[in-house]
Amino acid sequence: MKILVTGGAGFIGANFINYMLREHPEDKIVCLDCLTYAGNLANLKDAFANKNFLFVRGNISDRLLIDAFFEKEKFDTVVNFAAESHVDRSITNPTIFLETNIMGTAALLDAGRKHKIKRFHQVSTDEVYGDLPLDRDDLFFTEETPIHTSSPYSASKAAADLLVLAYHRTYGMPVTVSRCSNNYGPYQFPEKLIPLMIQKALADEKLPVYGNGLNIRDWLYVEDHCRAIDMIIRNGREGEIYNVGGHNEKQNIEVVRTVLARMGKSEELISYVADRAGHDLRYAIDPTKIHRELGWLPETAFDDGIKMTIDWYLDNTDWLDDIRTGAYSYYNETEGNRFVLG
Ligand code: NAD
Ligand code: DAU
């Protein structure tokens, strides 16, 4: 297969590329990423050493570039990770979320349709379902749960999902959609809960917990998500949505305490701060469909995954420091611009 991975310099995309190059040495992987603040070429340093990997710097919303790129590369499969992904940023600046997450996805769909790709996979999120109450642990998101978004981020992801599914129904385009719960693992940008807390704890700074810390997220180790997507693009049914999650619900405060304990830091660093506007209460995925149809199950228990994750950040403080100082964006500019198409 020749696979286009968009957004592959970000957290999950980079983990996916590393996973695919390792698990499928017969496949060719092309990464398209415009290197926003969330993209980091250092995440792909192993991939750059692989002859089956190509990086191209470009924006998924740039229709001329995308069309020429598809014409030249003749992909079989597109896996679209590229997105603005942080809820807090969507609250302060929604516009870029609409441009990238909706219009960018539309541009990729049009190119994929014109160039007759065999599979378009949209990497979506459980946030499209809105939230569940805290006192109903019998309720889970299934693929039939109605879309009911809360933030500009989740609304933009839901709009993209609907477009992808519309291209299947209207044009017969071979699409699939995955909706995953919160990922954690190496290379996650330290604006998201777990790496932010690790970074703050390392610096003995206050750890900002929104509201009362009782909101619940359903955590999945990133490599389990990557394996799910791999299974879906190979064996998933066209036009279908697959929820991905591992029944790993934790209150935010539990996660923060786990990080502090593993790092040998005091809980006095915890600081309760103003709540996020529109803060979703609880996410919880029912993964029955992907288990039944594709045999997917998570392989990494939270206790193991969180240890591996914390250890990775502690072993890679240079990676965190380069983000804190901005050195990574200088590196992106100098190196990344060598890979601009045309
Ligand atoms: P991320 O923010 O770490 O990475 C996003 C990547 O997309 C970056 O490399 C960035 O440079 C690139 N990008 C952004 N705009 C682009 C554009 N216009 N053109 C080309 N590249 C662009 O995100 P992530 O956490 O890795 O999430 C990846 C995908 O998975 C997103 O679609 C997100 O909605 C989805 N998702 C994330 C999670 C999670 O827990 N992080 C869970 C479920 C689904
Ligand atoms: O569920 C999947 C989604 O998970 C993805 O679609 C998003 O791209 C991803 O960012 C993530 O969204 P969340 O909003 O759940 O993740 P975040 O890490 O921003 O926050 C997790 C929880 O922690 C949430 O309840 C808010 C809280 N939080 C977050 C930050 C950054 C804090 O209490 N303090 C913080 O400083």
What does this structure look like?
It is a single chain. By secondary structure, the protein is of the alpha/beta class. The protein has a domain at 2-185 and 221-246 and 284-300 and 330-339: Rossmann fold (3-Layer(aba) Sandwich). 43% of the residues lie in helices and 16% in strands. It has helices at 11-23, 63-73, 87-92, 95-114, 152-171, 193-202, 222-235, 252-263, 288-294, 302-315, 317-325, 327-336, and strands at 2-6, 28-33, 53-57, 77-80, 119-125, 175-180, 183-184, 207-210, 216-218, 220-221, 240-244, 249-251, 270-273. It has a 7-stranded parallel β-sheet with strand order 3-2-1-4-5-6-11, sandwiched between helices. A two-stranded parallel sheet has the order 7-10. Strand 5, helix 5 and strand 6 (175-180) form a beta-alpha-beta unit. The model has no long low-confidence stretch (mean pLDDT 98). It binds nicotinamide-adenine-dinucleotide and 2'deoxy-thymidine-5'-diphospho-alpha-D-glucose. 2'deoxy-thymidine-5'-diphospho-alpha-D-glucose is lined by residues 85-87, 125-127, 181-182, 192-193, 196, 208-210, 215, 217, 252, 276, 283.
SSE blueprint and pairings:
Elements lengths: L1 E5 L4 H13 L4 E6 L19 E5 L5 H11 L3 E4 L6 H6 L2 H20 L4 E7 L26 H20 L3 E6 L2 E2 L8 H10 L4 E4 L5 E3 L1 E2 H14 L4 E5 L4 E3 H12 L6 E4 L14 H7 L7 H14 L1 H9 L1 H10 L6
Parallel strand pairs: 1-2, 1-4, 2-3, 4-5, 5-6, 6-11, 7-10, 8-13
Antiparallel strand pairs: 9-12
Helix pairs in contact: 1-7, 2-4, 4-5, 6-8
The structure holds nicotinamide-adenine-dinucleotide (NAD) and 2'deoxy-thymidine-5'-diphospho-alpha-D-glucose.
2'deoxy-thymidine-5'-diphospho-alpha-D-glucose binds next to helix 6 and strand 8.
